[in-house]
Design a protein that fits this description.
By secondary structure, the protein is mainly alpha-helical. It folds into two domains: about 70 residues; about 100 residues, Butyryl-CoA Dehydrogenase, subunit A, domain 3, CATH 1.20.140. Helices cover about 90% and strands about 0% of the residues. It is rod-shaped and about 95 Å long. It starts with a helix and ends with a helix.
Amino acid sequence: MRRLAAAIGTLVFLTACSEPPQKEIDRAQGAIDAARAAGADQYAPDPFAAATIAMQQTHEAVDQRDYRLALSRAVDANERALEAARQAADGKVRVRGDAEATIGRALTAERQLNEQIKVAESARVPAKDLEPARRVYATAQRTLQEARAAMAAGNYLVASKQVEGLPENIAAQTREINQLVDKRGKARRR
């Protein structure tokens, strides 16, 4: 009885492996396509690459008529693609939050710079000394506008790259304006 069951199991296994595991290949390809649509190629590049490599290995195994290996690789590609999609969702949320925080800091710094420019103007700091601050302010406004448009379009990585380092650059210019105002005030007192 056991021999008969083993023989039937072997026959089923061999029959199942006598042709490409098309259902599993299609499922894995669908998972990879869904992961790509979820942004896994950008937000979870490592697991996404692993899924695509496993899928490539699936096709290579089919070409070599090693259908058991093809089945194994297709299942692996499917699992990796599902993981890539999960990580992409998490990565997208994280990048969005980081970009929003940086944009918020840049907006605050931009307002402070604008106020310091006004203070410097009222302290009669020469216009040529204020020109770099005005350029930074104009650039910051343009960059923030582009970053907000990218955020609205869901391009969180683009927005994040656009504002990278912007709050620090604006703050540095604000410090320079403060020094000019202080220097101007000291000169007046003498």
